[in-house]
Amino acid sequence: MEEASERNKKQSGPVLAWMRSPIDVSQFDECPLNRLPFLDPRLQVALQSMGITSLFPVQVAVWQETMGPGSFERDLCINSPTGSGKTLAYALPIVQMLSTRTIQCLRALVVLPTRDLALQVKEVFAAIAPAVGLSVGLAVGQSSIADEISELIKRPKLEAGICYDPDDISLDLQSSVDILVATPGRLMDHINSTRGFTLEHLCYLVVDETDRLLRESYQSWLPTVLQFTRFGVGGLFPHARNFLPSMFGSLKTIRRLGVERGFKDKFYPRLVKMVLSATLTRDPSKLAQLDLHHPLFLTTGQRRYRLPEQLESFKLICESKLKPLYLVALLQTLQGEKCIVFTSSVESTHRLCTLLNFFDDLRIKIKEYSGLQQQSIRSKTLKAFRKGGIQTLVSSDAMTRGMDVEGVRHVINYDVPAYIKTYVHRAGRTARAGQSGRCFTLLRKDQVKRFKKMLQKADNNSCSVYSVPSDAIESLQSTYTSALEKLKESVEAETNRKRKTKFKSSSLVKGQKLNN
Predict the structure, then answer these.
(1) Pairing mode, if any, of strands 204-208 and 272-277?
(2) Could you tell me whether strands 174-175 and 153-154 are parallel, antiparallel, or unpaired per DSSP bridges?
(3) What is the C-alpha separation between 226 and 213, in angstroms, rounded?
(4) Given CA atoms 124, 125, 127, 128 in this order, what sign does their dihedral have?
(5) H or E element in which residue 147 lies
């Protein structure tokens, strides 16, 4: 055992000192709301109206570190399995802390990598924040930036009969929201171009799905936010593209201008950061970007990769050419229970979903969900899936991280994930919030050994073989042949439509050039 432990340490690379002594979240018990110390009675009522009567271990652990003696004295890094309740773990203490001051300004910012995740997190905040008089905003590019600005920025009441220049910098513009949930790209749009949008009063920064947000630069949103909150320049100079333009002069000059963190001649409380992921990175160089203050590491057990406790994992060995048939036979055995099928790409998602819908006798409503679709289509599909109008989603990894759909009983890896991190996030769409769930992975014989080795990284050695009767496969052969022919015709028709669209666009551009 000791040798294995040493081997794991060597393989994991350098570990920051504060990560070597984590708080084990699994040691905490669920706590009924009426026994949770310091909880605002108004928030208790709001939580109960959501059907929540107690907090999960990760939520209790975070509450204790933020509401107890610690009281946000340290930044928090939270590594907890998918479905363990991380969103409410940070939303609840932030809302409670902000409710103690009545002034309305942007004081909490939550950043997520995708629109769908941001919409989901916004719903959690919106369910509890109004109970204590707080307003929640959304900046994800779902609507026009003008519509977002009207929701985020409060214009002063103007006297009737007097004309005002909308670009007049003397107009006193203020935030309409206390909490903002945003994607990085749209956040940068507001920082760079929205008058009245400022981060100078920001108290809390949440970086959810940290691994992905640190892996991609997203227009350097993180260093921009950290600089603007450090010196408060966003409020007076929202169009500033350099962090400290020469016109500011020295830091002493900035303090004289009274823009440091929004208080003249006074230091504003430091910016508290909370970073979260089900697979939080251990890379010191990546974590250094966050500029954490005496960070406290909360995790579940000793392993980085953890699967939900109530998850059952299965492998389904199949022939490569007959793989779709194995999937159809498996879907039939699940009898229409809510299920997500994951593929390796948006192209595979589209073709597989199209193929499955050509199996006329399947009697399962199947839709695709991928990054190729417009946001409005994805939102409509997700809504129908949540309500049960769709039983099976075929998805690319657009839905892998963070998405919470109640009642998903099964996850199927049609394409085996290349990394354990991807497997953890995919499998985490089921067995959430203490519920049971199953994850099936379709494998060729030559993939079995590598798959077993990958699961060992999550300490999962209990992946059973799931068998599909051979007569079930044979009975689908004729339908499969017909479906493949229809798929071929569908792909050819789509290709021709794209060519025509491309030709029309090209002709239009040439015509415009000739007219000019």
Answers:
(1) parallel
(2) antiparallel
(3) 14
(4) positive
(5) helix 145-152
The beta strand positions in 200-345, using DSSP E, are 204-208, 272-277, 296-299, 311-317, 339-342
Three-state DSSP class for residue 211: helix
Which contacts qualify for 352-356: CB closer than 8 Å, 24 or more apart?
352/324, 352/327, 352/394, 352/414, 353/394, 354/487, 354/490, 354/491, 355/324, 355/483, 355/484, 355/487, 356/324, 356/327, 356/328, 356/331, 356/392, 356/394
Q: Is 168 helix (H, G, I), strand (E, B) or coil?
A: coil
Residue 157: DSSP 8-state? P
Return the residue matching tokens 């333009």. 245
The pair of structure tokens assigned to 96 is 């409670």
Closest among 178, 205, 223, 202 to 269, alpha carbons compared: 202
E strands, 178-329, are 179-182, 204-208, 272-277, 296-299, 311-317
Of 3.30.1360.120, 3.40.50.2300, 3.40.50.300, 1.25.40.10, which CATH number belongs to 311-494?
A: 3.40.50.300
Q: Shortest CA distance to 92 belongs to which of 139, 138, 33?
A: 33
Q: Cα 475–484–390 angle (5° rounding)?
A: 80
Record the tokens describing residue 480, joined without a space.
């499969």
State the alpha helices, DSSP H only, in 388-476. Answer: 420-427, 448-455, 470-475
Q: Six-digit token pair at 441?
A: 């992975």
Element containing residue 413 per DSSP (H, E): strand 410-413
Tens of pLDDT along the chain (516 residues) come to 333 444 444 444 567 999 998 999 989 999 999 999 999 999 999 999 999 999 999 999 999 999 866 678 899 999 988 888 999 999 999 999 999 877 789 999 999 999 989 999 999 999 999 999 999 999 998 888 999 999 999 877 655 555 545 455 445 788 999 999 999 999 999 999 999 999 999 999 999 999 999 988 788 999 999 998 875 443 333 333 333 333 333 333 333 233 334 444 444 568 999 999 988 999 999 999 999 999 999 998 777 788 888 899 999 999 989 999 999 999 999 989 999 999 999 999 999 999 999 998 888 999 999 888 888 898 899 899 999 999 999 998 866 776 788 899 999 999 999 999 899 989 988 988 778 999 999 999 999 999 999 999 887 777 999 999 889 999 999 999 999 999 999 999 998 888 877 656 555 555 555 455
Other Cβ atoms closer than 10 A to 379: 15
E-assigned strands of 302-380? 311-317, 339-342, 366-369
User: Do residues 239 and 194 touch, judged by C-beta distance below 8 A?
Assistant: no
3-state SS assignment for residue 483: helix
Ranges for all domains in the chain classified under CATH 3.40.50.300: 14-156+171-299, 311-494
**Confidence at residue 70, expressed as pLDDT on a 0 to 100 scale:** 62
Please state which CATH class domain 14-156+171-299 belongs to: alpha beta
